Amino acid sequence: MQRIHTAAGLVVLAAVALGAAPARAGQEWTPPSRQMPQMPAAGELDGGWRGSLGAWFGGTGVQLDQVRASGDDGGARPRFVRFTAQSRPVEAWSDRNGDGRADQVEVFRDGARAYQLVDTDYDGRANVLRVYGAGGGLAREERY
């Protein structure tokens, strides 16, 4: 009888341990802040953005020194910036209202959108985090 309880206890402990195990590096992405990031200046797109905005790339599974940025819509601060590594998107930031702060941050895994962080009311703070499944469909949405 004691042996059965011990074996069952080990199975329960193993299940708890597996369920509580941290995700492998690069599996989960979480924004470093609910405060949306400042769009990089046009002059920073050649690599100067890495120091000030590097925290936003933690958990993407890509080394920061491999990421390149390109911006659209000109001006001092582009309204759309795509960050790529090895010809695949890593993140895309959009400034939809032109205030110089990203209103939407999309994170990609293996070329497919995995996360989308959105400031729906343009106050500079994220309101919605969407998580997409492997097939590209919306897996869950969190509202802040």
Give the SSE map.
Elements: H1 2-20, H2 49-53, E1 68-72, E2 80-85, E3 88-94, E4 104-109, E5 112-118, E6 128-132, E7 138-143
Antiparallel strand pairs: 1-2, 2-3, 3-4, 4-5, 5-6, 6-7
Can you put this structure into words, describing what you see?
By secondary structure, the protein is an alpha+beta fold. The chain has one domain. The protein is 17% helix and 29% strand. It contains two helices and seven strands. The protein has a seven-stranded antiparallel β-sheet with strand order 1-2-3-4-5-6-7, with no helix packed on it. The radius of gyration is 19 Å and the shape is globular. The N terminus is likely disordered.
The number of distinct β-strands equals: 7
Parts with pLDDT < 50 across at least 5 consecutive residues: 1-26
The average pLDDT value, as a whole number, equals: 83
Number of discrete domains: 1
Structural class based on helices, strands and sheet pairing: alpha+beta
Descriptive terms for the model:
17% helix, alpha+beta, seven-stranded antiparallel β-sheet, disordered N terminus, 144 residues
Summarize the structure.
The chain is an alpha+beta fold. Helix content is 17%, strand content 29%.
